[in-house]
Design a protein that fits this description.
The chain contains seven helices and no strands. 75% of the residues lie in helices and 0% in strands. The chain has one domain (2-222).
């Protein structure tokens, strides 16, 4: 019974985590002043630029929000994996935790440390793609999934957002150099940051909705 209560509580903790991340992003974006004295634009600025120390005035709020929000969301991913149980739960738990912990590491290693920052960010993007695919497959293929069928739809949308973004990513060995060059003379409308924001919103929506759906499933089982 105690484990069930922790699993149930983890859904609220995960939603608190994404609220903290969203709030830290919005606060940092509102006060952002770039290297060319430009304000923040969702059309041509990466999310991680909000955490660049020495450039973003509230970088520490952004990075702290990612660290704390990532840790709270990790607790939810663990609770979700335990809720699912079995071999599916183990597999989903591993890839889910690795992916969400990478969010925390993005806050630990901001853009000032671009090489390692790109590695942990790419871990999130490729891991997120795998998580969305795996949860979609779980709901579709499992005989008695412990999440509603609609989770396959939200997972599919999130997977598609990740897939499109990853498709546009430059080759890993060229990431740091290529992105640094483009940032010096960024276009007014840039597909890659826009797609990154799409991924971000899909992930926030997926975590929030899946947490709610998990609570609904738990309540139904208890009746």
């Amino acid at each position: 019974m105690q484990i069930k209560k922790l699993i149930f509580a983890s859904s609220y903790i995960g939603q608190a985590g994404i609220c903290i991340i969203l709030l830290s992003v919005l606060i940092a974006a509102a006060s952002y002043v770039g290297k060319q004295n430009e304000t923040y634009s969702f059309l041509n600025h990466f999310i991680s630029e909000l955490g660049e120390i020495g450039v973003s005035p509230l970088a520490h709020i952004f990075n702290g929000g990612l660290i704390l929000g990532g840790l709270l969301t990790s607790f939810f991913m663990l609770g979700l994996a335990i809720h699912i149980g079995g071999s599916w739960g183990v597999g989903l738990g591993v890839i889910g935790l690795v992916t969400v912990i990478s969010v925390t590491l993005v806050g630990v290693f901001p853009m000032n440390q671009l090489a390692i920052h790109i590695k942990v960010a790419n871990t999130f993007f490729y891991g997120g793609l795998l998580v969305a695919l795996a949860y979609g497959l779980y709901v579709i293929c499992s005989h008695q999934p412990r999440l509603p069928k609609v989770t396959a739809l939200t997972s599919g949308i999130t997977m598609l957002a990740f897939a499109v973004f990853v498709w546009f990513l430059p080759p890993p060995l060229e990431d740091a150099q290529r992105i640094s060059e483009i940032l010096k003379n960024r276009p007014e409308i840039w597909a890659l940051p826009i797609l990154e924001w799409l991924v971000f919103l899909c992930v926030m929506g997926w975590i929030g909705s899946t947490a709610s759906l998990m609570r609904i499933t738990i309540k139904k089982v208890e009746r």
